[in-house]
C-alpha cells in the first residue's frame, strides 16, 4: 500500500486532516463524518511516509471497544505497530514497568469496583447505606479525583453537588476519606489512582519522564470532548511541552460532564495551541437528510455545534418520513412499548435485520416494558451494558474449546473447523424456535460463527482463535442477531439503520433533576447523540401517562420536540400527516 493510496477515498477535509502530520492539529468532527477513518488514515499515512516511527505513536481513546477498533483498522492499513489504548490502559502499562524501579515491589492491585470498599467504609463509620447510594458515592469519588480536587476542596463544593441518599454534607467527605484509608491499608488502587500515580511518577521522577517521552513522540486523542482535567494533566505530562498532538472531537456530543468531562479543552484548543491546524468535518455519511436536519435544528446556536450536511443518496433513503420525524403520543408506558414492538415486528417482516434496529431510552428502568413487549412478539433482543459478551459462560467455554482444538486440527476449511467445535457445545445451523436460555446460548455461539464470515480469505483455524483471544482481551464484541436496547449514554459511538427514541417526556428527556442551563444543555446533547445514531429510519415517541418508579402521573412531551420543529405529536394509531 503506497502512501498516496492511503489518501484515496477520503473527502477533501478528511484529506486535509490526514496530511496534517506535524504540530498541533484539531479535527472538529460531527456525528457520522468519518472521524475514525480520518485519524486512522492520518496515522497510517504518517507511518508510510516515514514521518512517524510506528512504535513512537500513541493513539488514545476512552473505551476498550474503541481502542480495539482503532488497532484493527490500523493493522489493515499497515500500521499495526502503533499503540492504541485507553488512557487507563496506557497509564497502567507505564506504572507496571516503572513501579518496581521507582517504588519497589509490586504495583498495588487495581479494584474492579469501588462498591465493596465503600461498603466497608460505611460500616467503619457506622452508616447503613443501600447499593444505590454506594453507587452514587462511587460516582462522587470519581468526579472528585478526575476534577483534581482534594477531599477538603471537594467538601467546599458540596453546595453545588447532589449528596447521595441520606448522607449529610459532613458524612460524605468522611466516607471519601475512610475509603482512601482502607485502600491504603489494603494496598489497593482504583482506576483514578492509576492515572494519578502515573502522572505523579512522571512529574516527580525526571528519569521516568525522559523515558516516557523518548518512547512516545506523537499523540492522537479521540473523543477529546470527553477529556477530564486529570486526563488532560497526564496528556500534558506525556507531551512534555512538545506540539505533536492531534485531537478529534465534537462538542455537541459532550454527555459526560457529570463525570468530569470538559469540552472546553476541545473548544479552546486553538487558543491553547497557537498556530494549530483546525479541520472541520461536517459531511455526514451516516444519516438521511431528515435525520441530519433534526440534529441540526436541535443544536442550532449552541457553542461549538457543527452544521452537518447529509451525503446519503436520498434515492436510496427511506423517503416515507417527513422532513422532521413526527413523534407519536401513546396513552401510557405499556402502550408505547407495545407500539414500538409492533413497529419493529413490521420492520422485520419487511426484511430488516434485528441487529440493525435499536430502541434507545434515558434510564434503565424504561427497558422492562420494552423487553416484555418484544418478548411477547418473539423478537430477540440484547441489552447493551448488561453482562458483557466475553464474560458469558458459554462464550468462555467456546473460546477454551476452540483454542484447545486449534492445536490438533490440521488444514481444514475454517467454517468446518469452527462449526465442528461449536456443534459439540450445542450450536446448530437452525436457530431454536422458542425464546429462553437455550435460544440465548445459541445466539452467543452463532455470533462466534458469524466472525468466520468476517475473517479474511485464507485465515487459518489457529489465526482465527488468536484473533478471538485478542477480541476477548479488548472486549471487542461481535454483533448478535438481536434488537439492541440501550440507554442514550451507552449508545454513543454506535449506529443502526433504524432507531426508536422512546420516553421523550419532560422528566425523562430532559431528566427531572436537570435544573440549570448547563444541565439542560447536556440533556439536549444526549438527545442529539440519540438522533444521530440513526442511518435511515428515526422514530420518536412519548407517553401521556406512566408509572415509572411506581407512581402514576400525567406527562408532557419533551420541550426538545418543539425545538426539533415537529408539529403536535399525533396519537398512536392515527395516520401520519402529509
Give a concise summary:
The chain is of the alpha/beta class and 578 residues long. The strands form five sheets. The chain has a seven-stranded parallel beta sheet with strand order 13-14-12-15-16-11-19. It has a six-stranded parallel beta sheet with strand order 3-2-6-7-1-8. It has a two-stranded parallel sheet with strand order 4-5.
Structure commentary:
With 578 residues, this protein is α/β, with parallel strands linked by helices. It is built from 22 helices and 19 strands. The strands form 5 sheets. Strands 13-14-12-15-16-11-19 form a 7-stranded parallel beta sheet. Strand 9, helix 14 (289-299) and strand 10 (309-310) form a beta-alpha-beta unit. Helix 5 crosses helix 8 (171-186), helix 9 crosses helix 10 and helix 9 (191-204) packs parallel to helix 11 (229-239). The radius of gyration is 25 Å and the shape is globular.
Key attributes of the depicted protein:
single chain; 578 residues; alpha/beta; seven-stranded parallel beta sheet; six-stranded parallel beta sheet
Strand content: 5-15%
* Percent helix: 40-55%
Average residue pLDDT:
89
In quaternary terms, these chains amount to single chain
Cα Rg: 25 Å
Strand element count: 19
The helix/strand class is alpha/beta
Biggest pleated-sheet summary = 7 strands, parallel
What is the CA–CA distance across the termini? 51 Å
Low-pLDDT residue intervals, each spanning 5 or more residues: 319-323
Report strand order across the widest sheet: 13-14-12-15-16-11-19
Shape: globular
Number of helices: 22
Amino acid at each position: 500500500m503506497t502512501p498516496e493510496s492511503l489518501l484515496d477515498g477520503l473527502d477533501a477535509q478528511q484529506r486535509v486532516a490526514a496530511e496534517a502530520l506535524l504540530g498541533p492539529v484539531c479535527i472538529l468532527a460531527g456525528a457520522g463524518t468519518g472521524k475514525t477513518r480520518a485519524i486512522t488514515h492520518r496515522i497510517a499515512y504518517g507511518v508510510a511516509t516515514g514521518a512517524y516511527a510506528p512504535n513512537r505513536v500513541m493513539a488514545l481513546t476512552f473505551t476498550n471497544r474503541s481502542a480495539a477498533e482503532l488497532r484493527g483498522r490500523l493493522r489493515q492499513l499497515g500500521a499495526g505497530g502503533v499503540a492504541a489504548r485507553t488512557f487507563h490502559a496506557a497509564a497502567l502499562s507505564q506504572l507496571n514497568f516503572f513501579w518496581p524501579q521507582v517504588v519497589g515491589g509490586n504495583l498495588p492491585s487495581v479494584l474492579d469496583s469501588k462498591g465493596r470498599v465503600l461498603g466497608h467504609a460505611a460500616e467503619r463509620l457506622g452508616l447503613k447505606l443501600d447499593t444505590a447510594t454506594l453507587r452514587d458515592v462511587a460516582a462522587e469519588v470519581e468526579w472528585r479525583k478526575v476534577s483534581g480536587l482534594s477531599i477538603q476542596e471537594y467538601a467546599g463544593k458540596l453546595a453545588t453537588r447532589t449528596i447521595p441518599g441520606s448522607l449529610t454534607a459532613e458524612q460524605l467527605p468522611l466516607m471519601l476519606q475512610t475509603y482512601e484509608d482502607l485502600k491504603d491499608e489494603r494496598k489497593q488502587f482504583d482506576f483514578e489512582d492509576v492515572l494519578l500515580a502515573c502522572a505523579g511518577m512522571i512529574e516527580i521522577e525526571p528519569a521516568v519522564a525522559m523515558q516516557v517521552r523518548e518512547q512516545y513522540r506523537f499523540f492522537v486523542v479521540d473523543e477529546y470532548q470527553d477529556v477530564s482535567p486529570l486526563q488532560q494533566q497526564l496528556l500534558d505530562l506525556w507531551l512534555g511541552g512538545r506540539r505533536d498532538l492531534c485531537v478529534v472531537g465534537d462538542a455537541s456530543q459532550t454527555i459526560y460532564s457529570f463525570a468530569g468531562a470538559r469540552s472546553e479543552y476541545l473548544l479552546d484548543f486553538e487558543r491553547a495551541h497557537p498556530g494549530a491546524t483546525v479541520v472541520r468535518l461536517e459531511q455526514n455519511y451516516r444519516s438521511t437528510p431528515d435525520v441530519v436536519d433534526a440534529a441540526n435544528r436541535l443544536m442550532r446556536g449552541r457553542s461549538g455545534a457543527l452544521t452537518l450536511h447529509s451525503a446519503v443518496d436520498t434515492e436510496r433513503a427511506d423517503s416515507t418520513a417527513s422532513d422532521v420525524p413526527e413523534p407519536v403520543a401513546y396513552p401510557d408506558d405499556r402502550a408505547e412499548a407495545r407500539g414500538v414492538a409492533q413497529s419493529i415486528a413490521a420492520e422485520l417482516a419487511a426484511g430488516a435485520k434485528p441487529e440493525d434496529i435499536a430502541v434507545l431510552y434515558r434510564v434503565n428502568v424504561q427497558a422492562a416494558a420494552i423487553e416484555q413487549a418484544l418478548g411477547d412478539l418473539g423478537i430477540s433482543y440484547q441489552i447493551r451494558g448488561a453482562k458483557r459478551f466475553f464474560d458469558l459462560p458459554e462464550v468462555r467455554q467456546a473460546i477454551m474449546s476452540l483454542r484447545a482444538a486449534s492445536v490438533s486440527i490440521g488444514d481444514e476449511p475454517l467454517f468446518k473447523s469452527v462449526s465442528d467445535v461449536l456443534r459439540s457445545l450445542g450450536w446448530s445451523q437452525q436457530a431454536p424456535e422458542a425464546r429462553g436460555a437455550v435460544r440465548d446460548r445459541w445466539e452467543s455461539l452463532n455470533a462466534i460463527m458469524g466472525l468466520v464470515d468476517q475473517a479474511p480469505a485464507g485465515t487459518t483455524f489457529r489465526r482465527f482463535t488468536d484473533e478471538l483471544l485478542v477480541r476477548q482481551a479488548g472486549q471487542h464484541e461481535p454483533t448478535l442477531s438481536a434488537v439492541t436496547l440501550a440507554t442514550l449514554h451507552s449508545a454513543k459511538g454506535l449506529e443502526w439503520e433504524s432507531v426508536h427514541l422512546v420516553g421523550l417526556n419532560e422528566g425523562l428527556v430532559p431528566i427531572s433533576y436537570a435544573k440549570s442551563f448547563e444541565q439542560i444543555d447536556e440533556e439536549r446533547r444526549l438527545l442529539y447523540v440519540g438522533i444521530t445514531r440513526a442511518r435511515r429510519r428515526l422514530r420518536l415517541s412519548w407517553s401521556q401517562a406512566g408509572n415509572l418508579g411506581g407512581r402514576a402521573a400525567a406527562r408532557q412531551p419533551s420541550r426538545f420536540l418543539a425545538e426539533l420543529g415537529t408539529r403536535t405529536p399525533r396519537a398512536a394509531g392515527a395516520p401520519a400527516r402529509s
